Amino acid sequence: MKECFGNARFLVITGNYGSGKTEISLNLAFDAAREEKTTLVDLDIVNPYFRTGEKAEELKAAGVRVLMPTYAMTTVDIPALPAEIQSVFEVPSDRVIFDVGGDDTGAAALGRYYPSFMARREQTLVALAVNCMRPLTMEEDDIIDLAQRIEARGRLKIDLMINNTNLADRTTAEMVERGEKTVLACAARMGIGRVITAGKRNVLENCRLKTETMDIERYMVPEWMVEAE
User: What's the whole-model pTM score?
Assistant: First the structure.
């Protein structure tokens, strides 16, 4: 997985509800922690249901430093961003992964740290996760609109896109291949030079893809998937 993201010290993973951005962030954190000093920052202030904080104890046991909004995982409605998050730009860490709320509201939290990111832009990689099986990101125009709103509010240009098209255990190779075609078209229209396809290994092995791939494990099970099963 490291080879997909190179030596970027700061990995920003954003994506709309159901994109799998939290799943990707968790996979990156667990993988990086095997070899590097790793910090995972939960910046998702929009979605209170599926957040990296749910796996905080497992992450800490794996050696990952976990930072999340104050009041995260409680019944308080509006989380606050603790000052400790700013420390990730100052305290030595080989890899810092940001799980960011994907719509323009969520990206506002990212924009708060704009000066710190810009001072380290060459060390930062911003990725947009896209699941083309989700209602708001099925069509090219909708995906591009989302990406542009995130860039405007977060004040950081997207460097790569992650095709994470899936329907959990119902995912087929054809779904992933169609998703790749859509995401590649969006990337071309936006001038984004890199696309990665993420998915379960047993599915990716049956796909005919043009992009590099990233194997992921499922740590989170969205409620809408449970209800469908």
Answer: 0.88
